[in-house]
């Protein structure tokens, strides 16, 4: 079910050169100065250069959000949750990614600046994300979007939050048409072959991932709560169609692909794409590798198909 994008089986040489030139990004999380943590765990590459017709900042119960609309009639509404291991990242740092998706998919993107651990542990970030989704749907008309054509999306920790919001919205609403999970964080167990194989030297380290889970859940957190460890739910029936993107040299590769297979096993229409030669965070490397734009194009095609108007009956 997982479709590789190439069969090279080696780390992309442009990525390898970038890693060598930027050793800070291989530094274990636990030894980083907190003041540079957000930089170290944010997207990499050049500042945003993709123009967008309208950018609007707002708040949802004190949580900042930023809405992006391209210059044509939007096909739908996408609520985006940034990455950063639950402990870093921001709407500002993910500005370029959201601009690219809004433009490529022809959608309104609402990016959510949810509160971060360890000051705000689970389930506070999830609560923020779900509240922002409900707000975005209720106010969709203000953005020129259709509140019945809605998706959630996120990368890394944001992919975990998108998956958890999809699970929660199945019961509490609002209704979703799609979920986009980009190299998502899935399990606090951190016990897969890819976590061992790719746990050092490829941007995200296994030790950093375990540390971030500890900060997110806290000492009293439940590592089996399905809204955190999203692969522990008893049932996935009725979840919206999903696209799951993974990277060959990512510690999170196997858990993302496992989650895609779990969804598929419950008859959730699921597309899984592995980007060989890539590592965690490659979506933000548009100035370094073409796969970054290829991944955005795949996301855009999926969103257009799921959020576009339904075919007229013959």
Shape: globular
**Number of distinct helices:** 9
Number of strands: 9
CATH architecture: 3-Layer(aba) Sandwich
Span of the ends, CA to CA? 32 Å
Structural class designation: alpha/beta
List the helices and strands and how they pair.
Blueprint: E1 2-4, H1 13-21, H2 34-41, E2 54-60, E3 63-69, E4 77-81, H3 95-105, E5 108-112, H4 124-138, E6 150-155, H5 157-172, E7 178-182, H6 193-197, H7 206-217, E8 242-249, H8 253-265, E9 270-279, H9 291-307
What does this structure look like?
The protein has one domain (2-307): 3-Layer(aba) Sandwich (Rossmann fold), CATH 3.40.50. The chain is 34% helix and 18% strand. It has 9 helices and 9 strands. The chain has a 9-stranded mixed β-sheet, with helices on both faces. β8 (242-249), α8 (253-265) and β9 (270-279) form a beta-alpha-beta unit. The two termini are 32 Å apart.
Labels describing this entry:
314 residues, alpha/beta, Rossmann fold, 18% strand
